[in-house]
Amino acid sequence: MENVLGLVALAAGLIIGLGALGACIGIGIMGSKYLEAAARQPELMNELQTKMFLLAGLIDAAFLIGVGIAMLFAFANPFVLK
Fold first, then answer.
1. Which long-range contacts (CB under 8 A, 24 or more apart) does 48-52 make?
2. Tell me: the pLDDT tens digits for 21-39?
């Protein structure tokens, strides 16, 4: 029983850590591509900015869903029999 709880804690940490890493890398790449596109065609900056913020919200939403699932496993673990 103790081993299962330790593995659940490890899994929750990996879900949150790797999700945060992926979200940070994704937003960084998206921001750099936005700056490249805005430098090439400044007249499209407003349209590109709107799309960039929409994508940033979706990337963060995916990370927060992962955090919610990790918290579910950490606090109300369905795999541990009581």
1. none
2. 999 999 999 999 999 999 9
pTM of the model: 0.79
- In the set 20, 33, 60, 61, the catalytic residue is 60
The vertex-66 CA angle with 64 and 54, nearest 5°, equals: 40
Domain that residue 51 falls in: 2-75
Q: What are phi and psi of 46, to 5 degrees?
A: -65, -45
Helix (H) / strand (E) containing 82: none
Q: What's the chain's average pLDDT?
A: 89
Residue 14 lies in a domain: yes
At 45-58, the pLDDT tens digits run 999 999 999 999 99
Distance CA 11, CA 7 (A): 6
Active site residue 11: no
Residue 29 lies in a domain: yes
